[in-house]
Amino acid sequence: MAKKFKIFVKGKNYLLQQQGEAARKHGFYTTVFVEARNPEEAEALALDLLRTDSKILDACQNGDSDKPIFEVESTDEIASFENCKLPRNGLILFPEEQ
């Protein structure tokens, strides 16, 4: 039986050009909500979802040999998806140190 999970993910090495600036590396945090049988499957599903998320990929200027990196920060089983924006909630960007 599938359970509901909230996966908090940190992205790194995300080359992004913001308006009026040269492209530079950023990191980000986002929360992904998935249904899975166990936490390991939930994490894999969340990472797959991010690797194919057009809202993230369309702005990304990384080449094929320098892709963004995604790391699971936390995995929590939750009772329901009520008041959750599926499949992903928000994207908090921050500049990476040079």
Short description:
The protein is of the alpha+beta class and 98 residues long. The chain has helices at residues 39-51, 54-57; strands spanning 3-16, 24-36, 69-78, 88-95.
Strand content: over 45%
From the helix content, strand content and strand pairing, which structural class follows? alpha+beta
Give the N-terminus to C-terminus distance in angstroms: 46 Å
C-alpha Rg, in Å? 14 Å
Describe what you observe in this structure.
This protein is an alpha+beta fold and 98 residues long. It has one domain. The chain contains 2 helices and 4 strands. Strands 3-1-2-4 form a 4-stranded antiparallel beta sheet. It is elongated, with a radius of gyration of 14 Å. The N and C termini lie far apart (46 Å).
Describe the structure using short key phrases.
four-stranded antiparallel β-sheet; alpha+beta; 98 residues; 46% strand
Topology:
Blueprint: E1 3-16, E2 24-36, H1 39-51, H2 54-57, E3 69-78, E4 88-95
Antiparallel strand pairs: 1-2, 1-3, 2-4
